[in-house]
Amino acid sequence: MARVLLVEDEPNISEAIRFILSRDGCDVTVRSDGAGVVDLVRSDRPDLVILDLMLPGVSGLEVLSGIRADPAMADLPVMMLTAKGNGRDREAAERAGVSRFMTKPFSNDEMRAAVRDLVQAR
Amino acid sequence: MPLNILVIASLAYVICLFLVAWVAERRADRGRLGWLRSPLVYTLSLSIYCTAWTFYGAVGYAARSGLEFLTIYLGPTLVFIGWWWLLRKLVRIGRRQRVTSIADLISSRFGKSNLLGIIVTVMAVVAATPYIALQLQSVTLSVSAFAVPGEDGSAPPGTEATAIWVAGGLALFTILFGTRNLDAKEQHHGIVTAIAVEAVVKLVALVAVGIFVVWGLAGGPADIVARIHASEIADWNLQPGRWAGLIFVSAAAVICLPRMFQVMVVECADERHLFTAAWAFPLYLFAMSLFIIPIAVIGLERMPTGANPDMFVLTLPLAEGQGALAMLAFLGGFSSATSMVIVESIALATMVSNHIVMPIWLRLRPAKAVSGDVRRIVLLSRRLSIGAVLALGYAYYRMSGGSAALAAIGLIAFAGVVQFLPAIVFGIFWRGATRVGAALGLVVGFAVWAYTLFLPSFGPDAVIPAMVFVEGPFGIDWLRPRALFGVDGMDPLIHSLFWSVTLNTGVFLLGSIVTFPGPVERMQGAAFVRVFDIAASGPRGWEKGFAETEDLLVMAQRILGDDDALAFFEAEAKGQGKAGYLPDPSPQFIARLERRLAGSVGAATAHAMISQLAGRATVTVEDLMAVASESAQIMEYSARLESQQAELARTAGQLREANEKLTQLSVQKDAFLSQISHELRTPMTSIRAFSEILTEPDMPPDMVAHYGRIIHDEAKRLTRLLDDLLDLSVLENGTVQLNLGLSNLSQMIDRALQAASHTKPERSFIIHRDLPMENIFLRTDADRLVQVFINLISNARKYCDSDHPELRVVVRHRAGRVTVDFIDNGSGIPKGKQALIFEKFARLTDQTRAGGAGLGLAICREIMANLGGTISYLPGQGGAAFRVALPLRLERKAA
Q: Do B507 and B444 meet the contact criterion of CB atoms below 8 Å apart?
């Protein structure tokens, strides 16, 4: 059973994603802000981290950089979500080492397929 | 006739002239010029055109070549009748620029170039020397004509002795009256008056001889006409080319001859005299030429073959025993010769002194210039120059042996001075004429004239070897002096005239087109060409070497600019109690001027310039003018550069500012679009995800209901966001329609509290109000104001983090304005964020709790601006505190 950590500040969106992925057999943990996420990932070792880009407090990019800074988590799959249709954000995320970048709104199939890919590639 | 009587008569005549000149000078000194300034005197003084050459030579010319002598009178006649406007311009320029000679005119026109002055002076001296020799020759010839019999046994004086006495006497006379003083205008009233008297004498003498010939020797007009018809003079062939050439030469010469320039321009007391001279001088010439042919015809008839026809005027009465008439004729010839020599030597001496002697002297003895007694030096230099010119004439006379015919020498001299014509005519009518062009034209014309006419006139082997005439120099055939460029068979005079004037003009034009005039040249060019357009300005006569106020003004104008300089000079003049722009050059004034100039060019330069102008240093005035002119131009140029630079900098600054604003706007727009995108995509993500979930099979009904509710909420959030955006857009554009009316403030607050009571999280809020204070009527848009209140109240409800939330609504009104404060008891807004809260999408906290798009306060700010009021955050109130301020009565369209 794949363990997924979802960091998303919009409660409705995180509820939807949790529902979609749970049905696909994932164990989804939800956090609504970026604070302490890096430590949580280090101790918890999820199979996949899904990060919203715009988080209150610590931003998604900062969390991603924190994860990639640790050699032990260098190839941990991290998927980034954003509602800002901005090319610059995608570039910044790719530079920071994101595994997959997805723009909101997404289709549920798209989300499921992406998660499967990332988890299986591991 | 005894020689003694002749000598006594001559002396008496000279003493008489002396007295006339002396009286005229006295009257001029006392400022009582009276008839001395009459146009008649001016016209008569112009008659120095008629020298001994015309007095004696014209008869000889007629005897040899028939009517051709008339060309010498026709040229000036045409100029005075047809070209008086050219003479008028010359006279105007001469007076305006204080021109002292023809060399000064040309030098001054082309940037005060002393090189040109020297060239013209040398040319004038070379061309005039044979002419002066000619006058000496005519006097000695006429004396020897009397002396031949030697009745009383005394040996006739040698011709050399006569010539030297005449030359010496003329030098003395000229020095006495020509260099008596150095007044500003270089005018010699004594000399001019004496010349006018001489003009009358020579006319009377010639006419008297003519009348004697026509009515005494012949039988009246009818008889003389018959005799003329019978004589060989009637058979002379007219050579059209030579006629045209000679008319041109004499016409040009009357403008270019140094002595004509002297009397016509320099001595001219009043420009209007030209109008009289325009008809009176041709009339004089007509009278002078009237009896030439009769005298020549009778002379040829009666005088023995081989007699010199040049002397018929004198020898004919002598042979007929008319001693008194012969004496009159002698005095007429003497007058012609002396007047020409006197004026010519004054003109040449002025040129030699000003353009050759003084510059050399100043360069060699600069220390002497400091003493300030330049006048004495100038006078001495003039006197020496007069002596030198006459000595040169005498030397030429001795060397040439006095053999050539009078008319030939005269024409050669004419052709020489004609070389000045292009420089003068183009100089006063064409601003593009340049110094280089003038110098080249003069030198080339002079060289061609000398090579083809002047030097050959000495005869083969005298200067130019006879071989050169036949084969050309070094065997170069096309350089033969009499057949330049292979043009053979032309009359030597016309040949020389054609080539010299053509090459002169061609080179002059070419040089002027190719070169560019310097600043002083341009200035002078404009002053000459536009002499009639330019209002009288200070004349610039520098040659004396000491400062005059006009000179200082000209200098100051070059440095300070016209307006400043004139203002400064006017103020100074007023300080001295004088009207106008020209104060006395007192030491105090000069010191102040120096300080003023120092402000523009630096103290050292200003001091140097003033020193120069005060005649205390060695740099030439031309250099100074050039320096001043250049520095003014450089300053003007640099000032223009500076202003252009400042303008560029200003423009660049404006552009940078505009660019920054655009960039900022662009960044803001990007950020705004990005924010809107985020705000729209977020609810859409939930809606899309849940609506897809709802399509899945076997969903529990409670889940379906729950997700349906989420979809509904998010759809409402989307709608609210779009409403807010549209609202903000309308408010920001100022296109909002205000619905003004009287409303009770208390009721508006009630409405707002009511509307905001459902704001989540719904919790109990204690509201403090001051109802009596609230009970006022406002004239405003009630709905919009309520919208602001709702925003503030719901913000308080959303964000107040107190466990027992309270909200105080405080109303004050004063001086037509109302303030409504909303103060809660939460932790308030951190200081650093207070400036941000009214910006769009400036949500400070977790939006889950806020629920809005972050446009609320931005909308409030726009609404208050539309209502003529403000909304601001009140720090230090113990919680979040907002103050709404607005006018009690909003007049229509206050926003």
A: yes
Position B91 in a domain: yes
| Contact yes or no for B682 and A19 at CB 8 A | no
User: Does one domain contain both B599 and B650?
Assistant: no
User: Average of pLDDT values for B187-208?
Assistant: 85
Residue B712: how many CB atoms within 10 A of its CB? 12
Q: Domain boundary residue among B359, B387, B403?
A: B403
The Cα–Cα gap between B415 and B246 comes to 9
Do the Cβ atoms of B549 and B582 come closer than 8 Å?
yes
DSSP letters for B618-676: -S-HHHHHHHHHHHHHHHHHHHHHHHHHHHHHHHHHHHHHHHHHHHHHHHHHHHHHHHH
B703-722: pLDDT as tens digits: 889 999 999 988 988 888 88
Amino acid letter at A28? V
Q: Which residues, other chains included, contact B412 with Cβ-Cβ below 8 Å and sequence gap of 6+?
A: B127, B130, B453, B454, B457, B493
Nearest CA distance, B713 vs chain A (angstrom) = 10
| Three-state secondary-structure class, residue B757 | coil
Q: What is the mean pLDDT of residues B136-164?
A: 65
Selected residues 656-675 of chain B with any CB under 8 Å from a CB in chain A: 674-675
Cα separation values, B208 from A69, B10, B328, B336, B368, Å:
133, 19, 8, 15, 55
Residues of A in contact with B684 (CB under 8 A): 104-105
- CB contact at 8 A, B534 and B455: no
The 10s digit of each residue's pLDDT in B45-78 is 888 888 877 788 888 888 878 788 888 888 888 8
The pTM (predicted TM-score) of the whole model is 0.54
Write down which residue in B403, B423, B447 finishes a domain: B403
Number of structural domains chain B divides into? 4
Domain containing residue B393: 3-150+158-403
Give Cα separations from B798 to B762, B776, B805, B853 (angstroms): 9, 29, 10, 13
